[in-house]
TrEMBL record, chain A:
This is Sarcosine oxidase subunit delta. It comes from Marinobacterium zhoushanense. Gene3D superfamilies: Folate-binding superfamily. Pfam families: SoxD. InterPro entries: SoxD, SoxD_sf. NCBIfam families: soxD.
From TrEMBL, chain B:
It comes from Marinobacterium zhoushanense. This is Sarcosine oxidase subunit gamma. InterPro entries: SoxG, SoxG_het, TrmE/GcvT-like. Pfam families: SoxG (PF04268).
UniProtKB/TrEMBL annotation, chain C:
Residues 172-428 form the FAD/NAD(P)-binding domain. Residues 523-607 form the SoxA A3 domain. This is Sarcosine oxidase subunit alpha. InterPro entries: 2Fe-2S-bd_N, FAD/NAD-bd_sf, FAD/NAD-binding_dom, GcvT/YgfZ/DmdA, GcvT/YgfZ_C, GcvT_C, GCVT_N, Sarcosine_oxidase_asu. The keyword DNA-binding does not apply. It comes from Marinobacterium zhoushanense. It comes from the Bacteria. Residues 621-891 form the GCVT N-terminal domain. Belongs to the GcvT family.
Amino acid sequence: MLHIYCPHCREHREEEEFHVKGQAHIARPLDPESCTDKEWGEYLFFRKNPRGIHHEIWYHSTGCRKFFNVTRDTVSYEIKEVYKIGEQPQVVAKG
Amino acid sequence: MSETLAPEKEGTVNVAVMNQVAGSGARAESPLHHAELDKLAARNPRTGGVMLRELKLLGHLTLRGSQQNESFMNGCAEVLGLALPTQPLTSVEKGSVSIRWISPDEWLVVLPADQAYEVEQGLRAAIEGHFSVVNVSGGQTLLELSGPNARDVLKKSCPLDVHPSQFPVGKVAGTVFAKSTAVVRRSGEESWELVVRRSFADYIWLWLQDASREYGLVIKS
Amino acid sequence: MSQKNRLQSGGRIDRSKAMTFSYNGRQYKGYQGDTVASALLANGVDIVGRSFKYSRPRGLVTAGADEPNGILQMGATEATQVPNVRATQQELFDGLVCSATNGWPNAESDMMSILGKVGGKMMPPGFYYKTFMYPQSMWETYEKVIRKAAGFGRSPLENDPDEYDSVNQHCDLMVVGAGPAGLMAALTAARSGARVIIADEQNEFGGHLLSSRERIGGKSAADWVASIVEELASFPDVLMLPRSTVNGYHDHNFLTIHERRTDHIADKAPSGQVRQRMHRVRAHWVVLATGAQERPLVFAHNDVPGCMVASAVSTYINRYGVVPGKQLVLMTTNDGAYQTALDWADAGREVVAVVDTRANPQGELIEAVRKRGIKVITGSAVIEVSGKKRVSGVTVAGIDAKGEKVTGKAHSLLSCDTVASSGGWSPVVHLSCHAGSRPEWRDDIIGFVPGPTVQKQLIAGGITGTYALDKVLAEGAKAGQEATKRLGLTVADVQLPNVRNLREGKPMALFHVPHTKPTSRAPKQFVDYQNDVTAAGIELATREGFESIEHVKRYTAMGFGTDQGKLGNINGMAITAKVLGKTIPETGTTVFRPNYTPITFGAIAGRNCDELFDPKRFSAMHKWHVENGAKFEDVGQWKRPWYFPKAGETMQQSLDRECKATRESVGILDASTLGKIDIQGKDAREFLSRVYTNAWAKLGVGKCRYGLMCKEDGMVFDDGVTSCLGENHFLMTTTTGGAAGVLEWLELYHQTEWPELEVFFTSVTDHWATMTISGPNSRKLLAELTDIDLDKDGFKFMDWRAGTVAGVPARVFRISFTGELSFEINVQANYGLHVWEKLFEHGAKYNLTPYGTETMHILRAEKGFIIAGQDTDGSVHPFDLGMGWCVGNNKPFSYIGKRGMAREDCVRPNRKQLVGLKTKDPKVVLPEGAQAVADPKQAIPMDMLGHVTSSYWSANLGHSIAMGFVKGGLERMGESVYYPLADGRVIEAEICSPIFLDPKGERQNV
Ligand SMILES: [Zn+2]
């Protein structure tokens, strides 16, 4: 059970109030029609599975209904930071 | 009595607004109507650690808009007689109107049902720019939980930290409640309001009876 | 039986409160303050179980959570049965009924011995491993015997009458363990104003101080504990939880505590009380003050009843006033255990000898023992125990300085009935492991301590390997101060009480006592009592090539019992290390998982059972449905009317009647559960164009349109009708099950991809009660109740109008899911039942017939309308459904699903396509899920072409109807496919249009 700080409600809440929506910072291609099948497949299906720092989208589903980003360590489960949609992470994987 | 009408500009209907309150000939039933809380209140014990009542058939308006939109913020303050709370997780209350912060661009206005239509029209007349008002009065109800053990029942029902140091009077939080959801508000030293969805109301009522049994539950009409 | 081992005075029991209890069907007496274990020992009960594999008699070994043998089946009645309760932790109450878990038919009987011997041969180390590796069929044979013999306890066959629940807690500091360190930590934080929870598994706070004769601050240890407890109780923000085991320590300082509130009072909780409660704690900081558990030594026949760990013997004497024997031999590797010899002697019983494995032990306690005239045999060990059902004596031999070999030939035989052993202490690191941290070995304390962690965790006392009381108290206070400081509070002053420390010598690192014979041939030397794992078994495992301790554990089942190897794991690792010629840390470490001790299902389930198991959602008209005999169907959490049988009707008869009445006159459906989303904003229309596959640019105010929603892969995931309420205002409907998901989907795209679009979404699912009247007489019926002009040319198919229905403001949508003339009436849900009842008042003359989801399914299938989630499964795009008409390829924006649908795989020929299916025998209804094949005579596995998604008997048409997927089906109209069924039948069906009724759609336009 993670304890997640919602940047909109500005307090920590229990994980059960949230839904995780997978890897963050995957922008929808601006012109999908110009994508090859391979490019579209990358966008649709291919996700990182890092050991360590990972950026995820979470949704405060029972609270403010806002999506936001979480930088989480997939080994220790530590949440390193949360930041709003449109912002960039401060904590990134080394190398 | 309820023609579709809206602030019509250049002859087009932008938003359909409807007075949803029927005349006296139509029977209105709150989500917990069939639980017959009034009868229970007459029959049940008068003392116990938890008091419950349904604040039923109120008007509920969901208000969406940007805090950066001055017209929206001013219009709301003017029409509602209260400024929208901008501090997260807070509420304001004046007379029969209360406003709960739900998200940075969402508020829940609770007011007498017969004012909902008028207020919605007022807001639409007063505000420029992007916003929305939705009447959700039929979709939810307000339960008041009070008494010395109300906090214990909340702790059994939701994961919020409801300690007085963390949850002062007036604080609002949307959360998981009894495996469904609720907007919890501390309305007084020992009283709490839950906004629950209509379809879940019956389940939550069962849950609250069960969770408060060890403290003694008093139903208030 | 008298309490022959009970002392006249002393201990924390109340001799004025005698209690009777039943164990294995016999009555015994004990006192308030006893555990079942202490009461059994007081009564001279030596055998509390039979061992798992070898059926050897077993006695109590410890006095706490680490007890491997004294496992009880509790409960006076069938409904109150609780398995796997440790006798050392169950408080005695009057009328308690329990029996030994291990031991069939009863623990003292030898009836198991034959089976036991068979079991022993049948189950060498690696038994499970080999059984699972080799023919599976072997397992079934073994299983019957093993399961019965193993006696893992049993669950009740009747409903548990008690109430259980869970409570969410939050605190600044969670202190785990209320021994000296925990109490000091809690006191320090509490005085500093922190919100503190302190929990301990025992019935009283104090930890080992409850059985100690030490003095603290000039008081007895017990009095000192009482004074701290009293002060803690005075703080309103301190929650003290005795009888509460912190069972799990999860990520982000989330802890689960299992509180047993009434298990010490009676079999069943007193009326109105919760029996057990789970506390789900979120703590800013945690102090683990879980202490340490004493390790027994491993020697031959060390499992004979009467062999105990030394501190447990002291606990029984000092805390419970019970001396568990007459003549004691104590074997130790350290100074501390000498206290047990003193306690035994002070109880007036004989200490035969203290056998110290060290050659030249020096320390104050040793001097005290010697002063009492007790024989101390140094440089020696008890290498073997004699006796079967109780220790009758021991063999003592000299050992070398490393404890690896027996030296000399002169062995002495000592007569005794009790052997207490101490191999030192293992810090209780269990909780520190739960979130992934690995314990670290420390040579100086001969034990594992918690390793580095990301948790906001502090440790104090025995868990750190600190055992001297003054240091333990200081560590507790320091942890409390540290936590307080990190919480940003002002640290209050706390004085450490004076305690007298004893001068102690160095302990010896010895785990496995040597024997004159090699381990493999020596009598059994037990490491894990509960799973009958011996030193020889571990050696064998290691010889067979299992060199990782994790493999050794799985191979031998060491630590797999309900005690999780609390007593034996370190000894087992030491033996593995010795065989491998490695050190313990090189061999590995042992990691513990939740839960620390077994927990009841009741406590896990809490309130989430029976009526409260899962939320049930009801529409505003639910009461009417119940009163009118509806059978209900679960749709998500909704309870929807499934059909409305009249007296004596079968389901099919009811459906036939509902279907016909609707097509012939008028039927009514409660459609309130449909998801409804209010959409406002100047870009609402644009947003719809992006999330639906079809065009929305030209939908006028007052009009409705059906839409399909796809995911980016082009696959359909929801559908519904969206109505244009105003230029900037739409009402979207979704499937019942998809409502929440669709709203989240819309928000995701709005918030993450297209925040520039001015649009707001609000769920109004619960706000509107929706009732659909459908059938040729629906207009006539509605006309009686509404002020809306229902003229067929004024209020056309796919229009909506506002007005009143039965005096209630309403929006009426002329849309149809049955193909009939239909009106969907939306009123604010508070009026739902009123309007519904008015419709019935006026509907009687039209035979207004309520129908449920099943008739809805049949009627729509007659028209070939899909149900997202039934006829779609996330792998079909609109063209697969034959719904290309619902795809707007000229839309300027590349809407969600467009690019996905154009992928190579999505445009290939021979995709599975949705078609109608007419069975050759019109009376036969295809089973949903049946697989189509081209040739039913082909060899299995057959080449499957697709499956039936929807299939019904149509009373209106007088034949069965079905829809299903068939490869290339849209091009194969008129061809036959075959459905071979599990019962051997093969059903032939002809591929046809899925529109079985009114293909021109005239009925809905009347
Ligand atoms: Zn939030």
